[in-house]
Amino acid sequence: MNKFTKLGLFTLLLATVVFSSCEKEYDTAQTVDDEAIKSYISKNNLTQMQPDSAKTGFYYQVTNPTDGSFFLNTDSVLYDVTVKSMTSGTTYLQSPANGNLGTYVGYLNSFFQGALSTTITYNIPALRTAVLKLKPGGTARILLPSYLAFGRNGVGPIPSNENLDFIIKTYPYHKQWLFDDAKIQSFLAAKNLTSTKDASRVYYITNTVGTGTDAISDESTVVYKYTGRFLDGTVFDSSTDGTFSTTFAGIGVQGWKNIVRKYTAGAKFRMIIPSDLAYGTGGRTGIPSNAILDFDIEIVSVTN
Asked: Where is each PPIase FKBP-type domain found (predicted)?
């Protein structure tokens, strides 16, 4: 056997050992995760958990309403999500209290980008698989092994090799504006408030009729006092310790513009703005995606 043949044989053997070592490590990770999940199921008496039909390694259970059709990949899904560690119980991700998440079922993986402050798209088919077994309004719980989630690298607050407990709660609406309108009506009924619904879907309540004579136009400079809240009463912004002055055209909240022009200086009123006429799916600093806004406003002066 010449030295070139010996070298080739040695290289082949070395490659075989390395490949076998990697294969063994991968199989071990699967085995360890699967044992951990089975132990978690037993410890928490999750008797309704079942392995996915393709036997890829995740377990799930679903709770569905009696009526409705199952989601399709092309359907919009409005949902909240909670992601916890199966080891420590630490909550890694939680939908915002005053908003909700939404996407197409086929794109369910993309919510990780914003939630984890990453530009990487993580493809986690288990989420879609479970949601495709839901009807709008149903809930899925998914036990996800680390090798089907974020693996040895982890991401954001999620460490490496972490098995995850997902809960995805969907809502019985395919359109955000319908969901918002239902939430606003429920809020008004619970607070015993009588309001007027504008054609734009903003609800408003007049407390004091204005005494000013100048109508508000796009060219007007308007001085306001206001307090902005979420439906749970949390204040996100306020100018009651001073005043806020801007041209009417400079207001960035479309729902505000729809209602303010109905009033004149001296008016005090309240308006509840659906999310698509506020900051929409993108939100802004301090305001989550799909947040409904509740404003108390006083028009101090109008200059044309």
From this structure: 74-174, 219-303
d(CA 159, CA 85): 9
108, 74 contact by CB (below 8 A): no
pLDDT in tens, 230-269: 999 999 998 876 677 777 777 888 999 999 999 999 999 9
Tokens of 67: 């009526």
User: Which two tokens mark 297?
Assistant: 């406003």
Q: Rounded to 5 degrees, what are φ and ψ at 128?
A: -65, -40
The answer to whether 228 touches 293, Cβ cutoff 8 Å, is yes
Q: How does pLDDT run across 187-238, given as a tens digit for each residue?
A: 999 999 999 999 999 999 999 999 988 888 888 888 889 999 999 999 999 8
Judge if 43-170 and 176-303 fold alike in CATH terms: yes
What contacts 114, CB < 8 A, 6 or more positions away?
289
0.70 exceeded by the pTM? yes
Please give the CATH topology (third level) of the domain spanning 43-170.
Chitinase A; domain 3 (3.10.50)
**Cβ pair 271, 95 in contact under 8 A:** no
| Residue where the block lists tokens 């059709």 | 69
Identify the pLDDT of residue 117.
Answer: 59
Average pLDDT over residues 95-115: 80
**Nearby residues of 237 by Cβ (< 8 Å), 6 or more positions away:** 226, 227, 228, 286
β-bridge pairing 221-229 and 235-238: antiparallel
Topology (CATH) of 176-303: Chitinase A; domain 3 (3.10.50)
